[in-house]
Design brief:
Number of strands: 14
Largest sheet: 8 strands, mixed
CATH topology: Rossmann fold
Keywords: Isomerase, NAD
Low-confidence stretches: none
Number of helices: 12
Protein name: UDP-glucose 4-epimerase
Strand order of the largest sheet: 3-4-2-1-5-6-7-12
Helix content: 25-40%
Radius of gyration: 19 Å
Number of domains: 1
Strand content: 15-25%
InterPro entries: Epimerase_deHydtase, NAD(P)-bd_dom_sf
CATH class: Alpha Beta
CATH superfamily: NAD(P)-binding Rossmann-like Domain
EC number: 5.1.3.2
Pfam family, one: Epimerase
Structural class: alpha/beta
CATH architecture: 3-Layer(aba) Sandwich
Length: 335
């Protein structure tokens, strides 16, 4: 039975991926600091869905089935990371732990360098000494910045990020490439494109829109609604990661980068309209100018990932938002 380390296991993608791999028979070790960037209760409720109760800092907790061991800790604590790698012999390592949020990185820059850069180095160092079959880490579509060539391809230049968050993700790619080259670690980075779905992040626009709609508040629509996003449903993301797990690059260095998205950009106003339909309530809209750090359009070319794994997103926007809306109304007890 393969053992997998998932960092950020209480996060949005980490939670869904942990659940998926557990159901496939993997033994999972999870780590998450459960910070207060957004409501920690949501993170703890995700953990409860995985069978983890009463997680406390620095203490191991196991689920009843014994296929998930979890510790609340930060990956920039190198001593804890070293202990985890000493405790378990991992076949695969999936590093998703990071401080998310493009706009928040403008106001809280130190948190981003600590979590996203200092928090990645102990993972790389541990993989250097105990090489897993494959290390997969989270990058971001935001590193494409204001590139005008679309769709975005992995071979495009990404040397001009327009937010600190994007800069830290570019740094992650450089760090990972260096470690792969020096120590022959099989490493793959994934550039995620606007992931949405149930149990999502409350700081994401679609989640904020849903809450505002039911609380009678206005929603802020930036660039006067003239934005396009490659919205990607969470199940398509986890499916892509699973497909890639046992397919590390065989080139030298054993390093690769893939876009993982829906490859069908949607106008923001169309997205809002579909969300309103699924929630059964109309939003009060306020139009705002473009925000610092935002990009006009995201559009993933997923041809490379498709050739490698057969990846093909299967969830259309209406289906995905329908599932999100049902979860959202139940979780927050809205009528």
């Amino acid at each position: 039975m393969s053992r997998v380390l998932i960092t950020g296991a209480a996060g949005f993608i980490g939670f869904h991926l942990t659940k998926k791999l557990m159901n496939k028979g993997f033994e999972i070790t999870g780590i998450d600091e459960i910070n207060d960037y957004y409501e920690p209760k949501l993170k703890r409720d995700r953990l409860q869905q995985l069978g983890i109760q009463n997680a406390k800092p620095g203490t191991w907790v196991s689920n009843p089935d014994g296929n998930l061991n979890f510790i609340q800790a930060s990956t920039y604590d190198k001593d804890i990371v070293e202990d985890i790698f000493d405790k378990y012999d991992f076949d695969y390592v999936i590093h998703l732990a990071a401080q998310a949020g493009v706009r928040n990185s403008i106001d809280n820059p130190y948190k981003y360098t600590q979590s996203n850069i200092e928090g990645f180095l102990p993972i790389l160092e541990a993989c250097r000494h105990k090489t897993p079959k494959h290390l997969i880490f989270a990058s971001s579509s935001s590193i494409y910045g204001n590139n005008t060539k679309i769709p975005f391809e992995e071979s495009d230049a990404v040397d001009h990020p327009i937010s600190l968050y994007a800069a830290t993700k570019k740094a992650n790619e450089l760090m990972a490439h260096t470690y792969s080259h020096l120590y022959n670690i099989p490493v793959t980075g994934l550039r995620f494109f606007t992931v949405y779905g149930p149990w999502g992040r409350p700081d994401m626009a679609y989640f904020k829109f849903a809450k505002a709609i039911f609380e009678g508040n206005e929603i802020e629509i930036f660039n006067n609604g003239d934005l396009k996003r490659d919205f990607t449903y969470i199940d398509d993301i986890t499916e892509g990661i699973e497909k890639l797990l046992d397919k590390p690059s065989e080139d030298s260095p054993t390093y690769d980068i893939f876009n993982i998205g829906n490859s069908h950009p949607v106008k923001l106003m169309d997205f809002i309209s579909t969300l309103e339909q699924e929630l059964g309530k109309e939003a009060k809209k306020v139009y705002k100018p473009m925000q610092p750090g935002d990009v006009y359009k995201t559009y993933a070319s997923t041809e490379k990932l498709n050739k490698k794994t057969g990846y093909q997103p299967a969830t259309n926007l209406k289906e995905g938002l329908s599932v999100f809306a049902e979860w959202f109304l139940n979780y927050y007890h809205y009528k």
